[in-house]
């Protein structure tokens, strides 16, 4: 766990980690983005002149860990937010990999994205020595969900499929979801959680106490980092102030 002073420092630290993962791989790079409000400042930073000029856009592919099953034109669409904030102005279009929400239903959308991920990876099975992603960004919801893997839902137990349809969300927005599964998300060099703000205090306290929830079960086969800010940390676990 890394503690940042505030939301801005947290986004800057996240941007530094994105750049470090990019710098560590001289070949093709795969980054799995996330939705919700937590990564928005990071996306703004990556699109700003200082950072965008340092990103080797021709070598980076951008995926998304979960999607709300709404059209791309809907403001709830996670990848649309990332595209509008930094990708469309910078990334080659063929290297932006949204979860297709024009499919008939979330299961069909999940199957299509699994095919896309497997084609990119070049194999049907994930090999522990060869991670799918360099970096997977994550957030944690108020019920301890991460990506669109909700506590007590069957999708959190998935061990085979890479992507699943989730017919009903446990928290707002109550639209069907499509989510990468724990094994697919784990196939990365680094999984980076961003957890910031006072509203996150109750759930971060439960996560730090080791409660078994999707956000604690989601682990990288490589490094797992929780980037949190002071406001999200409860008094008792803040320390060092
Ligand atoms: C989504 C997200 C989800 C998110 C958490 C945290 O589609 O909603 O991918 O997993 O990361 O719910 O959301 P906030 O960042 O909005 O608090």
Distinctive features:
9 helices; 241 residues; 32% helix; 3-stranded antiparallel sheet; binds 6-phosphogluconic acid; Rossmann fold; alpha/beta
Description of the molecule:
The chain has one domain (2-232): Rossmann fold (3-Layer(aba) Sandwich). 32% of the residues lie in helices and 19% in strands. It has 9 helices and 9 strands. A 6-stranded parallel β-sheet has the order 1-9-8-5-2-3. A 3-stranded antiparallel β-sheet has the order 4-7-6. The protein is globular, with a radius of gyration of 17 Å. The mean pLDDT is 96. 6-phosphogluconic acid is lined by residues 34-38, 66, 68, 78, 139-141, 145-148.
Overall helicity: 25-40%
Most strands sheet = 6 strands, parallel
Broad shape: globular
- Please mark out the parts with pLDDT under 50 across 5 or more consecutive residues, or reply none: none
Total individual domains:
1
What's the total helix number? 9
Bound molecules: 6-phosphogluconic acid
What order do the helices and strands come in, and which of them pair?
Blueprint: E1 2-4, H1 7-24, E2 29-33, H2 40-47, H3 49-52, E3 60-64, E4 66-68, H4 78-87, H5 106-121, E5 133-138, E6 163-166, E7 177-180, H6 182-186, E8 188-195, H7 201-208, H8 214-217, E9 223-229, H9 235-238
Parallel strand pairs: 1-9, 2-3, 2-5, 5-8, 8-9
Antiparallel strand pairs: 4-7, 6-7
Bound molecules: 6-phosphogluconic acid.
